[in-house]
Amino acid sequence: MLTLSNLCKRYPTGDLALTDIDLTLPRGQVLALIGPSGAGKSTLIRCVNRLVEPTSGSVTLGGVELTRLSGRRLREARRAMAMIFQEYALVDRLTVMENVLSGRLGYVGFWRSFLRRYPQEVVAEAFHLLERVGLPHAIDKRADALSGGQRQRVGIARALLQRPELLLVDEPTASLDPKTSRQIMRLIRELCAEHELAAIINIHDVLLARQFADRIVGLRAGRIVFDGRPEELDADILTTIYGEEEWDTQSEAASSQEPESPARPLHQPLTAVAAGGVR
Ligand SMILES: Nc1ncnc2c1ncn2[C@@H]1O[C@H](COP(=O)(O)OP(=O)(O)OP(=O)(O)O)[C@@H](O)[C@H]1O
Ligand SMILES: [Mg+2]
User: Fold this and answer.
1) Does the keyword Endoplasmic reticulum apply (predicted)?
2) Angle ∠(163,6,242) on CA atoms, nearest 5
């Protein structure tokens, strides 16, 4: 459904963020993109919807080469891709319902959305989605009155109201506590299954990636160094992705902090411990 071919991105500053990225994402697949800070994860996601302009290579979604489009045709093609952000990107002074409805801005035209006159069936759909993400009682609350987890639920409902085929998710849990992070990842995972949505999820937490993704891609210095199933992600592969030096440092730091009674369960694999420390 989504194909990236020979995708390269060099920023005007000279930073080479992506080199020869080849990736095909089938319909309905949830892909976790992992890798150290600066590896190019956000750049890759943003090249897909052309928030960042690729330097060379192509992005094709549903047979349409996005990298050749501009103007209205690009805007229309972008409807098929919805973003979910770490910082939620809600409008604080608007209500939850208004924030969710803004997911349809790309459809209803400027004046209608300016006057906030959304068709009744769109409002009903937004309400249904707010129920689905667990916020039916918060529709009239202002967005800035919500917790981080609730804000992310609004962000997810807004993304789905766009009726996308592909979710582009940049560190959805980076500002959330561990339990809320799991709930949010589970929700995204379930919604992808319910709506047959593909997703690319940038995530630092390797445990969450392993638990909730169908496939893991590891980026290092702008190149894909691993592409496989979650259960294939072992210590060697994590070293390839994150590097030997940080790996050793993190393992030592973790063991010296908790010599006798680790707070984490003992059955948790070493790979997870080391990877969890690399942020
Ligand atoms: N707007 C920009 N202008 C210049 N260089 C940039 C820009 N955005 C990112 N870069 C550079 O591109 C490379 C990849 O950055 P990117 O933000 O994609 O990494 P990332 O994997 O998302 O990192 P993080 O995990 O910290 O979010 C880095 O070297 C970064 O400095
Ligand atoms: Mg990033």
Assistant:
1) no
2) 85
| Residue 33: band (very low, low, confident or very high) from pLDDT cuts 50, 70, 90 | very high
Q: Are residues 101 and 142 in the same domain?
A: yes
Exposure on the CB side of residue 84, measured as CA atoms within 13 A: 32
Lookup result for tokens 């979604």: 61
70 and 123 both lie in a single domain: no
Q: Indicate which ligand has the atom closest to the C-alpha of 17.
A: 1
Give, for ligand 1, the residue of 7, 8, 21, 37 to mutate: max count of ligand atoms closer than 8 Å to Cβ: 37
Q: Looking at the structure, do residues 96 and 157 belong to the same domain, yes or no?
A: yes
pTM: 0.86
Can you tell me which atom of ligand 1 is nearest the CA of 35?
21
pLDDT above 50 (res 50): yes
Q: What average pLDDT score do residues 226-234 get?
A: 95
Q: Please state, in angstroms and rounded to a whole number, the distance separating the CA atoms of residues 234 and 236.
A: 6
